What does this fold into?
Amino acid sequence: MSLLPWVYQDFCSGPVKMRLFCLPYAGGGASLYRDWQALMPAGVEVCRLQFPAREERISEPPLTSIYELVDNIVRAIRPLLDKPFVIFGHSMGGIVSHRLAYCLQLLGKIPQQVFIAAVRPPHIAHPKPIHQLDDKGFKQSLLARKRTSREILDSDELMTLLMPMLRADFTLAETYRVPASARLHCDLVALCGAQDDTAAHDVMQQWRVLTTGQFDLIDFDGGHFFVQADPNAVLNMLSHTLQLRLKRLHDKPTATDFASARDGEIQLVF
It folds into this structure.
């Protein structure tokens, strides 16, 4: 069964023990994570999600509804949920990651961990949404926020091609709202760029209320795109964390694990 056009599997060497689903920021695509597989621990398979209206899906119309987007993602990745999995999302991808994890949770498929970078949590309203601005105001806001390169913004041809996708991505991210009670039942790691004024440390701290699991907030040097500016720092953290997660999974007793009660040993029954 082909997982395209929604999922690119970067097959790991050896048996798959865990999958890492990676979701892009607004305007980005699956290619953002194409080099990640080589730096993952043995047994971790990177699965890069590709949304419509970008890269090789540029001819498709963009989606402005996070509900429709995530419904499609869930259908696409169902065959890959036979192994433990984690989710990583940057900016808009972080918002989609929350929705994806929440929907999978309702289906009984709970992530081992969710990593969310550089985006305010969806129970907090955006102070200055930009998705409804006219084209000129939208482009100026993208430039001011350093979300898109000046070369692209100054190209009428490129902006004509990319504007519908960019506006749809911001619409999707800025209009998704959940109550603080929409908690994930897994560990959540928030990643923050120390110089990111759109998702500062105190804003990223608010992700804490959206999980019943362990919460960690990690600061990295850089602005909103710190993941791409210094990928080694993020990948070293991620690789180390997933290595520990794999060890826990390997060491976790199962229903068939029994220890003899003789000679003072403890019998484990689940």
Remarks:
- The mean pLDDT is 90.
- Strands lie at 7-10, 18-23, 44-49, 85-90, 113-117, 187-193, 215-220.
- The chain has eight helices and seven strands.
